[in-house]
Please model this.
Amino acid sequence: MATTIYASHHPQPSDNEMYYSAPADPTLTNDVLNLSVLQRHLPSTVSIGFLAPYAVVYIFSTTTQAWEKSGIEGTLFVVRLQDEGHAVVVLNRRGLGNFILQLKSAEEVDVTDDYIILQGNGGNNLGNGNADEQKVYGLWIFEEEQGSTKGVRAACGRCIVECAERAEATSNARGLNGVGQLNGSTQQQSTAGATSGPDLMALLNPSRGQSSDNTPTVQQPEMNQGQDILGDLFRKAGANR
Model:
């Protein structure tokens, strides 16, 4: 599984932010406009299966045994790719790169009360590393106790698990063994990291075979000032749709 970060040379609002603030063709639906934006970053995108208005991407540190911010936050999409693949995309509102992770197996997805946890190869995503290094990402999704985003975290988790199961079934049926479509063309992905190093998903979830003594502390995102920021972003997005 590979995660890809695309960067530009000049700091600019993401395409998703520009979409919300710029006048749109009244004949086009939000889904059509969002799909157009996604296809600029991920040309193999065919359709959007789920949208969460605001998500923050964390990365699990094996050194500190805690979640650390990756610097990526924005609108989250679960998309279908060519050849029946699926991916999770977060269009970054605060930095130069986006989060793109192709789903391969439901065994690499775990849904908790705080995070949707995904496992994938490191490569050049979210900093330095080699393509065979296993990394664990936590997707924290903003939701309101009452309102249009109530329950969005659980719904997104179900969608990601279902898409991962379908992707795995399709891969097994076709005998692809790790062939991906992230860049719009078929490319073989390295599987060396899947068999080397510790099982990070087991480390996070004792029920997968790890002693509870080694379970890391899961920390909630700091929301003392961020709460208002998240609310403002969501209200701004809704007001301009």
Q: What stands out?
A: The radius of gyration is 18 Å. The mean pLDDT is 71. The first helix runs from residue 15 to 21. The longest strand covers residues 45-61.
